[in-house]
Amino acid sequence: MFAQNLPGNDPPLKQKFQDDCGGKIFTKVETLPSFKISKKAFEDSLTSFLKGQNAFSFNRKFKFRFIVTSKSEIFNLEKEEGNINNENFTKEAIMKFSYFWLPAKQNGNIVCYYVRLELEIKSKKLHVVII
């Protein structure tokens, strides 16, 4: 199953969408996007980066939605819910670590996929869930 809506009205973004995704973004796949490194290593990297920039909120939960392309890039990043001290910096951090993602697969092919990422901070530690 896939959605064929082009993200945004920006011509360069539409061209990138066409080039990277062939005009298709899947909403259901056989193999979800995952991390090139362990989930714990991803959480530790993101935690360290956010703490180093004083952008770490304590005991909060928030969700983002974005597209992981067939080239392991992230675009169309949006916050879905939650309150963040510095939303723009958190988005920048997620984009900075985009190279840690592996794309989704459907029928043996690498495809673009909508990802919902839940970030929860508990006891000074970031926990990540791919939804």
What would you say this structure looks like, in words?
The chain has one domain. It has three helices and ten strands, in the order βαββαββαβββββ. Strands 5-4-9-10 form a four-stranded antiparallel sheet, covered by helices on one side. Strands 1-2 form a two-stranded antiparallel sheet. The radius of gyration is 15 Å and the shape is globular. By secondary structure, it is of the alpha+beta class.
List keywords for this structure.
globular; alpha+beta; 131 residues; 3 helices; two-stranded antiparallel ribbon
Could you provide a short overview of the structure?
27% of the residues lie in helices and 35% in strands. The chain is of the alpha+beta class. It has one domain.
